[in-house]
Specification:
The chain has 244 residues and is an alpha+beta fold. It has 4 helices and 11 strands. It has a 4-stranded antiparallel β-sheet, covered by helices on one side.
C-alpha cells in the first residue's frame, strides 16, 4: 500500500512538472507571437513614414532577434545627406551627416566584464578597439550589446541601438546577426565621417584666400588623390573660375 501511494505521488509530481513546462512553453510562444505582431506593426508604420517622405534610400540594414523582442533599422540616404535610425520604434530618427562624429560599441559579457570597442571575429567595431576575438570563450554568453552613434547635436549626443539585452551565447544566431548589423552600420558611418572630412577639405581649398591658380592646383591634387570625384572636381573648379 505504501509503495502504491509513493508511486502515485511520483506520477502526480511528474504530471505537475510536465503541465508546468507546457504552460511555460505556451506562455513563451504567446510572448514571442505578441512581440512579432508588435514588430510587424512598427515596421508598417515606418514604411508609411518612408513613403510620405519619399526618401532616396542608398543602403538599408536590419536586425531582429529570434524572439522578436528587438528590432533595429538603419537607412542611409546619400542624396539627403541623412541617416534614419529606429530601434523598437514605429518611427525613424533622422540624423544629418554633418552631426555624426563616430561610433562606439558597448558590450558586456555574462561575467559583467566591459568589452567595449571590440574587434570580434576579425571585424572592427568602433573607432578604436581591443582585439578580443581570439580570447572569448565561444560557449560563454554576452549580457548586453549596444551600438552608439556619437553626435554633435546639443539636444542629443548619441543614438543607441540596443541589440542584445539578455544573456545570449556568442555562437547564437542572434549574436552573429547583431555583430553583422554593427559591422555594416559602422562601415557606413565611417564612410560618412570620411566624406565629411573630405567636404571640409574641399571647402577650405575653394574658399581660402590663395590665388585662383593655387586653388586650382590644390583642387587638381584632390582629384588625383581620389579624394573627390570628377563631378565634384568640375563643380568646384567652376565655382573658382566664376570668381574671375
Amino acid at each position: 500500500m505504501e509503495f502504491f501511494c509513493g508511486f502515485v505521488l511520483i506520477l502526480t509530481f511528474i504530471a505537475f512538472i510536465v503541465l508546468t513546462c507546457r504552460d511555460q512553453e505556451k506562455q513563451e510562444k504567446a510572448i514571442i507571437e505578441n512581440n512579432k505582431i508588435a514588430r510587424e506593426e512598427e515596421s508598417i508604420e515606418r514604411q508609411d513614414q518612408l513613403k510620405k517622405e519619399t526618401l532616396d534610400v542608398s543602403k538599408h540594414y536590419k536586425y531582429e532577434n529570434s524572439n522578436h523582442s528587438i528590432a533595429a533599422d538603419y537607412i542611409l540616404c546619400e542624396m539627403d545627406k541623412k541617416i534614419y535610425c529606429s530601434c523598437n520604434s514605429s518611427s525613424y530618427t533622422s540624423i544629418d551627416f554633418n552631426k555624426i562624429l563616430g561610433t562606439n560599441v558597448i558590450a558586456i559579457d555574462g561575467k559583467s566584464n566591459d568589452i567595449s570597442n571590440a574587434v570580434t571575429g576579425g571585424i572592427v567595431f568602433g573607432i578604436a578597439g581591443a582585439v578580443i576575438g581570439s580570447q572569448i570563450d565561444k560557449k560563454a554568453k554576452i549580457k548586453s550589446y549596444k551600438l552608439q552613434i556619437l553626435l554633435s547635436d546639443p539636444s542629443s549626443s548619441l543614438y543607441t541601438f540596443d541589440l542584445i539585452d539578455d544573456f545570449t551565447e556568442f555562437e547564437s544566431i542572434d549574436y552573429i546577426q547583431a555583430t553583422e548589423f554593427v559591422s555594416r552600420v559602422s562601415s557606413s558611418i565611417n564612410a560618412i565621417i570620411k566624406s565629411n572630412k573630405d567636404s571640409q577639405l574641399i571647402s577650405q581649398v575653394v574658399n581660402n584666400k590663395d590665388s585662383i591658380e593655387q586653388r586650382l592646383k590644390s583642387l587638381d591634387s584632390l582629384k588625383q588623390s581620389g579624394t573627390i570625384s570628377d563631378e565634384e572636381y568640375n563643380t568646384k573648379r567652376k565655382e573658382i573660375l566664376d570668381e574671375i
